[in-house]
């Protein structure tokens, strides 16, 4: 069995192709941003958000080392800041919710801004596109964020979106889980 983060990458790899547009809603240390930049190729684009300058700098270093900086726009702002999101259609959006590994554990993703970013993402996702959310709950505020995200996901219309929850149920220390949203059709009016 795959860990949730690896399964999230597998799901994204199935739908993201060269020339596509993707978003890393929480770039953190840059691992997902680099992964997305490799997949979109020289004709594609990745928009990577983080509120922490430390995360932006870490991601920038990874991209420069891989010579992929030109494929990524780094955004030192909240993922809820709609003005900085690319227009539709998006093929993939990745979230890693919690705190920056190796950073300040007091700075965490928040339910309100995460749900706002999800609302933007689902409306710009093209049919066949996917949103992955790796949710870490082992910190203060983690369970509340999971509840808000899960509540958002359960209200998505099933004719337009398929939602998956993937988690291990027999492990200690509240391991991360994966929520994945795939757009099935264009929105109905």
Can you walk through the features of this model?
With 189 residues, the protein is an alpha/beta fold. The protein has a single domain (4-183), classed as 3-Layer(aba) Sandwich (Rossmann fold). The chain is built from five helices and seven strands; from the N terminus they run αβαβαββαβαββ. It has helices spanning 4-15, 31-40, 53-65, 111-124, 142-154, and strands at residues 21-24, 45-49, 72-75, 90-97, 125-135, 161-166, 177-183. A seven-stranded mixed β-sheet has the order 3-2-1-4-5-7-6, with helices on both faces. α4 links the parallel β4 (90-97) and β5 (125-135). α4 runs parallel beside α5. The mean pLDDT is 93.
Please name the defining characteristics of this protein:
single chain, 189 residues, alpha/beta, Rossmann fold, seven-stranded mixed beta sheet, 7 strands, 33% helix, 24% strand
Quick summary of this structure?
The protein has 189 residues and is α/β, with parallel strands linked by helices. The protein has helices spanning 4-15, 31-40, 53-65, 111-124, 142-154; strands spanning 21-24, 45-49, 72-75, 90-97, 125-135, 161-166, 177-183.
